[in-house]
Amino acid sequence: MSSDDVWILGIRMTKFGKRPDDDVMDIASEAALGALADGGVTMADMGVLAAGNLMSMGAPTGQLLQKQIGQTGIPVYNVSNACATGATALRTVIMAIKAGECDMGLAVGVEKLAGAGLLAGGSRKADSDTWQPKGRYGAVASVDGRIGTEIMPGVFAQIGMEYGHRYGGTSFELFARISEKNHAHSTLNPLAAYTKRLSLDEIMNDVMIAYPNTRPMCSANCDGAAAAVVVSDAKLRTLDPDQRRRAVKVSASVLTSDPWTESCQVLPDVNTLTRRAATQAYEQAGVGPEDLDLVELHDCFATAELVHYDNLMLCPEGGAVDFFESGAPWRDGRLPVNVSGGLQSKGHPIAATGIANIWEVCHHLRGEAGDRQIEGARVGLAHVIGLGSACGVHILEKAA
Amino acid sequence: MPDQVPLVDYLALSPEPHLVAHECDACGARFFDRRNACASCSGTSFHAVDVPTAGELVTFTIVSFAAPGVPVPFVAGVVDCGGTSVRANVINTDPDPTHVRTGMPVQLATFVVGTDSEGVEAVGFGFEPVEATS
Ligand SMILES: [Zn+2]
Fold it and tell me: How big is the CA angle at A399 (ends A378 and A336), to the nearest 5 degrees?
């Protein structure tokens, strides 16, 4: 008897880092062809393709990819959802399969981002020579830097500092120690953009971007792609035992946007939609945070990782500092978080991130993570958040 | 005294400088931008309300690395003004974590952003620490 479960059949993440000789399609093709080969299938088996590439500004990424690896005429969805773009592509394929439109599909996220700067705010234009109110706030001049900040390191710094104000226990050093963990974890990940362990001193004394986030506490801009092949339960049952054995069950796939909260239009509220997504995901999967063997969460900044311990309910409400201080999220701790190195060290090629985190979890559930294998991992959670906001949470389980 | 215009339309300069929000008639949600409808309840009628000029700094960052043309360092934060959250810079204090802390009481203050070719000043706002009175 087949169920309405869906499975990851094949998945691939490329090396993250600087790839000056490759264009977007080189990197996307490597991930897509790699995922297909990993699943033992080809483009001819795919019934749907969803693709994301945030920096392409509306280019038909999926069709451009097809023109390199296989124009089979299947429906293509080009998706864009900030840093949750990859998770959105994956979820689009999952929805198509759950809707019965096809029994197999491919999701791809790719980005060329090495050397990019702050990715927000833009340059401040010179003030005009007569004041003319413009836009929804009737501003007569640029407000970035005059009424708060629009840069991501500053926005997420405030999100972490707000948590500290509410619950106490945070400090510059605490946030830096979270980054120290992730930079230590990536030393075991050959696909990470950075694999050099950094001392706490090195992290704290690096260039300050937006207090308390120094440069290594910010996500690393880099090139990279990730792709996944999704298959229905009924189709999986017709495949070879080896394909079935390595398939990873998608126990929950959830996407939320931010509901209105009092301050959400003043400072993005990344907490409420993440908590809602996590709640729905645990319910869908029939598991709780205590059942997780590893978590890949969206540590776009060290200050963000802390609040998501709480939002994903890895600790009691208000207990994120204690959770970190207990050593739990280190790879030898009770609940390893970001053993890949996370966005701060593995890197953050934006549209790839929401599939790359799934790849990391699948790698462990399949027992194929090599030196950084979390022994006996059976259940993992992958989380991304894109400001705007969109939150994707997937819970994955090893094949029984 | 030259003519003045506010940096943004939700800053009222008289009688004393203060912020004005659009409050939803139906649910009381407050917004500073021009509205199509309420993000909380989808209501479409609003009235103007004055926001208290004193509040508590609930979070901040000290931006040291910003977009080209934006002078650094500066302190950006969120102030809770009697239940209404306001985005603003913390001004008239040293931009370092020994002088700025969450929970500190602050009050609205204005500053001149610049003067245009017709001699009109644009006036911005921020929040400054309230001096502890002994
Ligand atoms: Zn309303």
Answer: 20
- pTM attached to this predicted model: 0.96
* CA of A277 relative to ligand 1 center, distance in Å: 24
Q: Is ipTM strictly over 0.90?
A: yes
Closest CA to A352 of A59, A112, A76: A112
A372, A185 in Cβ contact below 8 A?
Answer: yes
Contact A266 B29 (CB under 8 A): no
Q: How many CA atoms lie within 13 A of A151 on its CB side?
A: 30
CB < 8 Å to A133, chain B: 5, 9
Verify whether the Cβ–Cβ distance A146 to B113 is below 8 Å: yes
Domains (range + CATH), chain B: 4-13+52-129 (2.40.50)
Spell out the CATH class of A6-115+221-398. Answer: alpha beta
Q: Which of A127, A157, A262 sits opposite B114 (nearest CB)?
A: A127
Q: B59-92, pLDDT tens digit by residue?
A: 999 999 998 889 999 999 999 999 999 999 999 9
Which residues in chain A are closer than 8 Å to B7, comparing Cβ atoms? 139-141, 143, 146-147
